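Hey L., structure's done. Input below.
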Amino acid sequence: MPVIVTAGHVDHGKSTLVRALTGRDPDRWEEEQRRGLTIDLGFAWTDLGGHDGGFVDVPGHERFVKNMLAGIGGADVALFVVAADEGWMPQSEEHLAVLNLIGVTRAVVALTRVDLVSVDDAELAALSVSEHLEGTALAGSEIVPVSAPTGEGLDHLRRSIAGLVAVAPDHQRPRLWIDRSFTIDGA
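Output:
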């Protein structure tokens, strides 16, 4: 099953978008629910029109960058999230740098919260995102305006992700990501 990882600044709607796309809440810890903030990796899966996709929802807050790094390493496809009402932010830049560094080239950008801005402001936000992606591995990625609460653009986003998943490499092998290793004296 191809792995789709979220990326983007804190509070731009990554978890909300995963929930809207899959029907599963990736924020499973009580603390995450209470604070409305992703702290640890979240997981969800769904059928994307004939293609199964597994989502890894990563935290966007700078304090949890280690958790983000643990989840983003297995990416076949990135779902890069930027809020139309806030635009490009520091963790947007940081997450883009990580995706670029690990060589993720298949991505779609979800321009979230378009229901909170005018059409003109959404277009300006999309242009800004496109400019920030220039010269990176994600240059030329499709930008899809969406609103999770209203459902606007979600079908288009599903089709875009499904198209990327359809051409994602199928490694036909399990993956075990190692977080840390230790040497034990005397062994």
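The mean pLDDT is 84. The radius of gyration is 16 Å.

-- N.
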